[in-house]
Write a structure and sequence with these properties.
Helices cover 56% and strands 4% of the residues. The protein has 5 helices and 2 strands, in the order H-H-H-H-E-E-H. The protein has helices at residues 11-24, 26-42, 51-66, 73-76, 94-101, and strands at 82-83, 86-87. A two-stranded antiparallel ribbon has the order 1-2. The radius of gyration is 13 Å and the shape is globular.
Length: 106
Amino acid sequence: MAREGESRPTLAELAAAFDAERATNKRAAAETAYALAFRYRNEDVDGTRHFDTAGEWARQAIDLLDSLPSGSPSDVASTRESVGGVPIPGLLHSGVVRDRLGDVLY
């Protein structure tokens, strides 16, 4: 996920980035929330997986994406290829989040 020699941001750093982005760039914030959901689902944090936290971040991404225009491909085009070591789909909308993170959305 991260390139060799690069360190990935911590979950706390990603959460801080999300807070800053949410006020200025909802698409970037949604991408960061998506990455946080993936990391909480796929990585051990203090020896355990946090599927509930992953679900919370996935819902944040969905809520933000649902608040943005989505009528054309350019509306749903991602602004970054990856966030925090997580690849971001080229076209990111709430349906993609539901499809890829459905296992933590309960």
